[in-house]
Amino acid sequence: MSGVEIVFVGKAKAELCAYEDAPLGVSYVGGRTLATLISPGTELAWLNGEAFPIRPGYAAVFEVEEVGADVKGVQVGERRFCMGGHRSTQQFEARHTLPLPKDLATSSALIARLMGVSMTTLMTTHARPGDKVVVTGAGPVGFLAAQQFDLAGYDVLVVEPSAERRQRIVASGLKNVAAAMPLDDEALRGKVALVVECSGHEQAVLDACNIVRKQGEVVLVGVPWSARTSVLAHEVCKAVFFNYVVLRSGWEWALPLHARGFVWEELYEGYNNASQSIYSGFEKALGWLAAGRIPLDGLMRTRSPREPGPLYASLVRGEFAETFTVLDWS
């Protein structure tokens, strides 16, 4: 199959380029892309980086048109989710795709990919439902993290300096928000089980280390793309040491892609017996989205991929009020 894809060909330069797909492998499925999702933090960092060309993309939904000879249980015409790029066709091993729930809108299904970023933290934390959880930063990932922890039964506070983003959180149904970490609140300081740090801001990390309970977790989900303050590493180290903080990475790939049980005859092919995996997280996310449990009304902007240069320039300038940007390839 031939098609077009978005390519970052140089600093702050995005173009639509042609490509040719390889023949479909026996374990693969392929078809035309319906929609893709922009991950603004990661993609804008790539766009302003140094290594080019880059073919960006984070999540895609496609309509199956080809099914490999060894693939079972996938039908031509069905919609499937994948971690695909901004391109007009997709080809993936069938096991790395998921069917969409019947009534789930294509654009909404894409959000499962961003939900997966903090889903790993939800599936690995020692905090338990009912515990106090603080989410710092209410961008796309932080907004979804707050929704997921609330759904899972945690007592969630969202800390976000932007009044506009705080308003979105409140409008979504979460009323517990603050403009800054409430370090003087005796009901919170020393009683927070987990801080999900989604801003990538070093002051937020320090504040998180100062509010959690003994052996509370501070999980670094947000990418620290650049230094924002003059906070010294000593200040963070001191808070971690004397507060007995578990400070760890929020690396979303800490879980295996798929759970694989022990089979003696397949021992040398590896196994993990994992109770959770990246794709089990995606399945949970798709189910929550299909059930309408993640509020998305008014938060999504749909654009054509035909002129990526002006599109990404608008993102850089912060001209889109909506939280999520979807590209419609249909």
The CATH C-level class name of the largest domain? Alpha Beta
Task: Give the C-alpha Rg.
Answer: 21 Å
Number of domains: 2
H-E order = EEEHEEEEHHEHEHEEHEHEHEHE
The biggest sheet, with number of strands, parallel, antiparallel or mixed sense and barrel status, is: 7 strands, mixed
Helix/strand class = alpha/beta
Tell me the number of strands: 15
* CATH architectural arrangement of the largest domain: 3-Layer(aba) Sandwich
Question: What general outline do the C-alpha atoms trace?
Answer: globular
In terms of DSSP E residues, the strand content is 25-35%
- State the helical fraction: 25-40%
Task: Estimate the mean pLDDT confidence.
Answer: 96
CATH topology tier name of the largest domain: Rossmann fold
CATH superfamily of the largest domain: NAD(P)-binding Rossmann-like Domain
Structure overview:
The structure is a single chain. With 330 residues, the chain is α/β, with parallel strands linked by helices. The chain has two domains: 129 residues, Quinone Oxidoreductase, Chain A, domain 1 (Alpha-Beta Complex), CATH 3.90.180.10; 139 residues, NAD(P)-binding Rossmann-like Domain (Rossmann fold), CATH 3.40.50.720. 27% of the residues lie in helices and 27% in strands. It is built from nine helices and 15 strands. Strands 3, 4, 5, 6, 7, 14 and 15 form a seven-stranded mixed sheet that branches. A six-stranded parallel sheet has the order 10-9-8-11-12-13, sandwiched between helices. β1 and β2 form a beta hairpin. It starts with a strand and ends with a strand. The model has no long low-confidence stretch (mean pLDDT 96).
